[in-house]
């Protein structure tokens, strides 16, 4: 499985319907081609509840180690990704919903008084919920309740899910949203990161230099590298290599191109170097990956 994302890293996926903009899904890291889900964002809020294993979940420049029984709030329009931590795998519940399921209509009292300042706060991009804290334990219980409703499908399922989401938001508002924003995170930095990632997505098949990437955000090379490393927890060069490998997966599965041709198409001038980076990323060679995904055909 691969996330469908556009050139701006936005996920291309319907999260529920217009009438009920909520998507409840059960995910497993091992179901993704690379064993992790890549950087992406969406205009919906996402709540994550870990059922088994653990996950290193990163939102902007914050990294959380989520264990079974813990959860995470990921705000609208923020970059996030997840990868394995210590356990061999992680299964988790994802609850993705548009804020209007809570506030109803634009400029309502609920939206203006209780939601907008949280949704627009760079310092509240994410929150880690643990059962040891009473108010967070209540939120985790509501996530579990939503999980049960999604499995049992009672007559009032949508109504009860909306009520549970409202209780979760009330907990967030009362314990975080009523306080002054103590964070000084610059929203421009997130936009700069997005511009770099967008440029990589558009030109990954070409030769890309660090100087070219720095030019996209009008900073010097060294400052651009420090900014990207701080937010993404990896260098721009490593991100570029990883993205090129990810783009090669569909070609290995679905095309008749040989490995040398595929390496060239995704920006690797040397097929041997491509194979080394591929194995470091995927744990197998490109040919081994192709055989495992095409029933042994090479």
Termini Cα gap: 21 Å
Report strand %.
15-25%
CATH topology of the largest domain: Jelly Rolls
Query: What do the pLDDT scores average to?
Result: 88
**How would you classify the quaternary structure?**
single chain
Treating each run of at least 4 consecutive H or I residues as one helix, how many helices?
Answer: 11
User: How many independent structural domains?
Assistant: 2
What is the name of the CATH architecture of the largest domain?
Sandwich
The class by helix and strand makeup works out as alpha+beta
Which regions are unreliable across 5 or more consecutive residues at pLDDT < 50?
Answer: 180-185
Q: CATH first level of the largest domain: which class?
A: Mainly Beta
Biggest beta sheet summary: 8 strands, antiparallel
Number of DSSP-assigned strands: 8
How are helices and strands ordered from N to C? EEEEEEEHHEHHHHHHHHH
Helix content: 40-55%
């Amino acid at each position: 499985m691969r996330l469908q994302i556009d050139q701006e890293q936005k996920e291309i996926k319907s999260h529920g319907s217009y009438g009920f903009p909520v998507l409840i899904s059960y995910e497993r890291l091992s179901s993704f081609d690379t064993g992790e889900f890549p950087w992406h964002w969406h205009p919906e809020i996402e709540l994550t509840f870990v059922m088994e294993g653990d996950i290193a979940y990163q939102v902007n420049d914050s990294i959380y180690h989520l264990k079974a029984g813990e959860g995470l709030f990921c705000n609208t329009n923020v970059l996030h990704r997840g990868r394995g931590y210590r356990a061999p795998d992680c299964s988790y519940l994802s609850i993705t919903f548009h804020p209007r399921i809570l506030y109803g209509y634009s400029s309502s009292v609920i939206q203006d008084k209780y939601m907008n300042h949280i949704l627009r706060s760079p310092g509240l991009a994410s929150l880690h919920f643990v059962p040891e804290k009473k108010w967070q334990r209540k939120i985790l219980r509501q996530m579990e309740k939503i999980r049960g409703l999604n499995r049992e499908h009672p007559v009032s399922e949508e109504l009860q899910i909306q009520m549970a989401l409202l209780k979760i938001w009330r907990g967030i508002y009362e314990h975080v949203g009523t306080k002054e924003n103590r964070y000084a995170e610059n929203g421009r930095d997130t936009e700069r990161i997005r511009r770099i990632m967008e440029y990589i997505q558009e030109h990954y098949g070409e030769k890309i230099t660090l100087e070219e990437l720095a030019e996209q955000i009008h900073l010097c090379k060294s400052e651009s590298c420090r900014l990207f490393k701080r937010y993404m927890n990896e260098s721009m060069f490593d991100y570029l290599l990883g993205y090129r490998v990810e783009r090669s997966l569909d070609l290995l599965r679905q095309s008749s191109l040989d490995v040398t041709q595929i390496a060239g198409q995704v920006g690797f001038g040397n097929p041997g170097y491509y194979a080394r980076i591929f194995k470091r990323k995927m744990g197998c060679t490109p040919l081994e990956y192709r055989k495992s995904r095409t029933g042994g055909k090479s």
